[in-house]
Amino acid sequence: AQLAGHSDGGRVIAIANQKGGVGKTTTAINLATALAACDKKVLIIDIDAQGNASTGLGIDRKARTVSTYDVIIDRKPIEEATISSVVPRLDVVPSSIDLAGAEIELIDLDRREFRLKDAIRRMSRHYDYVLIDCPPSLQLLTLNALCAADSILVPLQCEFYALEGLSLLMRTIERVRKAFNPALTIQGVVLTMYDKRNNLSDMVASDVREHFGDKVYETVIPRNVRVSEAPSYGIPVLVYDMHCRGSKAYINLASEVLRREQTPMAEVGTA
Ligand code: ADP
Ligand code: MG
């Protein structure tokens, strides 16, 4: 497959939505795990001060001596912060709580929107996919992710307010394209925490499909208790219980991502 973007051929995907609790981190961890299971080399960069992606992959706080804070603020080489996870072929750049202050510290730094892009560009290791797990905001850290990325993958929770706030996200993408990263595309929209007993889930799903067309993955991630249990063991649900519905859905999502990589679709929302 021909991969767009970075010179080493890897694809950088920002997993972003300014809403919290919509499944960004869960999608980052489990899509990454499923891609690694498909023999891809994958890196997750955790840029949320909460550090849920790091914790969910069993990276002990004590092991996070160098974190995304040091990479973004102090320009430490990303390799120094990179840790292997329990999943073969999946590495993690963990975050630390210092990142909570980075938003303000960034304001006065040069190339403040491009610090993460610069770090990824200087990275000597090759990855097929770099997934950036974003914080629930559209401030400078998320902006760094959108400037570093080839594309954005948007998880949307199947709930009443799912579409609220999306126009702000789309305007932000447009602004990033105009000012910083003209090549930024929408990788896809994935519906999460779908509950088949809830009619609202279906209404939301069809609304989102009407709005985003074939940018919405066919795969829908069901609400599944195994998915929510796995992080407390510090392992992806695919390792915790590979046969549960949540795991199967993330395997399907990964194969859809890989399949779509080979047959790019028309852009939605491109000027
Ligand atoms: P975000 O990173 O967008 O804040 P998370 O991925 O952390 O969202 O998910 C929010 C909460 O919902 C977490 O407790 C997570 O375990 C849970 N969760 C996410 N996806 C599912 C799912 N498919 N089924 C059940 N619980 C889920
Ligand atoms: Mg998160």
Automatic annotation (TrEMBL):
SUPFAM superfamilies: P-loop containing nucleoside triphosphate hydrolases. Gene3D superfamilies: P-loop containing nucleotide triphosphate hydrolases (3.40.50.300). Involved in chromosome partition. Localize to both poles of the predivisional cell following completion of DNA replication. It comes from Hwanghaeella grinnelliae. It holds the Pfam family AAA_31. PANTHER family: P-LOOP CONTAINING NUCLEOSIDE TRIPHOSPHATE HYDROLASE, PARA FAMILY PROTEIN CT_582. This is Chromosome partitioning protein ParA. Residues 11-186 form the AAA domain. Signal peptide: none annotated.
